[in-house]
Specification:
Layout (H helix, E strand, L loop, with lengths): L1 H20 L3 H21 L7 H29 L11 H19 L13 H18 L3 H22 L5 H29 L13
């Protein structure tokens, strides 16, 4: 079981780097969708001994929302906006990968110094949760397309979710599902916003929004 958990977490790291190094929006969306599926499986594997109902339902909810619903919404927004690539991001892709490596080292360093109230299900949980959150924040501030920034938000939430499932195992299921619902509503609103931005301005570059100041 421990080997499977570690393998899932390492795969999450690789998906983070794929998002950092890819300009194709569809590929990035699929990477984040696969992350959601893996985190759903991780939820089930990391459950405490006892009933399988709670972790099973949460795993299904995570896979359904993170791995299916969000990607479908974003792929539809991408098609409606007729945009396929992230062109000229604020930070280039090679530099983004180097910054990602630095963020991974920082996450490993921080994880060894954070006081933890509980023992995580794997020693990789805390560094990978921090790393995923860092990558999400970086994607939000380093990319121009609104769709990519939504992906960054989802990756940030994936990091928080990984930390919660892997460490705070006693969190009531209602709270965990509430977090998923909040993110679902946020991404749904962002999808509507993306559609209206493209309809009005014929592009999704967020830096163009500065023109609204006039």
């Amino acid at each position: 079981m421990q080997t499977w958990i570690d393998t899932l977490l390492v795969t999450v790291v690789l998906l983070n780097f794929l998002v950092l190094g890819s300009s194709r929006l569809a590929a990035c969306i699929r990477c984040v969708a696969l992350q959601g599926v893996l985190l759903g499986i991780f939820t089930f594997l990391a459950h405490e001994a006892g009933s399988l109902l709670r972790p099973g339902l949460l795993a299904i909810a995570s896979i359904g929302i993170k791995g299916i619903a969000f990607p479908v919404l974003l792929l539809r927004a991408m098609r409606e906006a007729e945009v396929r690539r992230e062109i000229e991001p604020y930070v280039g892709y090679s530099l983004s990968i180097l910054i990602g490596l630095a963020a991974l080292l920082l996450a490993l360093w921080l994880s060894g110094r954070l006081p933890l109230p509980l023992v995580p299900v794997s020693s990789l949980v805390v560094p990978i949760a921090l790393f995923t959150s860092f990558v999400g924040l970086f994607v939000i501030i380093s990319r121009k397309k609104a769709i990519t920034q939504v992906l960054g938000y989802l990756m940030l939430e994936n990091g928080i979710y990984t930390f919660g499932v892997g460490l705070v195992q006693g969190t009531p299921m209602l709270i965990e599902l509430g977090v998923l619902l909040d993110v679902f509503v946020a991404v749904f609103v962002m999808g509507i916003t993306i559609f209206h931005i493209n309809r009005q301005f014929d592009h999704l570059d967020t830096d163009r929004l500065a023109l609204l100041k006039g």
